[in-house]
Amino acid sequence: MNLSDYREPKPHRLRRILWAAVNASLFRWLPGHIGWPLRKALLRLFGARLGRNSYVYASCRIYAPWMLQMGRALLGPRTEVYNRAFVTIGDDSVISQGSFICTASHDISSLMLPPVLSPVTIGNNVWVAANAFIGPGVELGEGVVVGATASVYRPIEPWTVVGGNPARPIKKRVIKNEA
Question: How many separate domains does the chain show?
Answer without folding.
Answer: 1
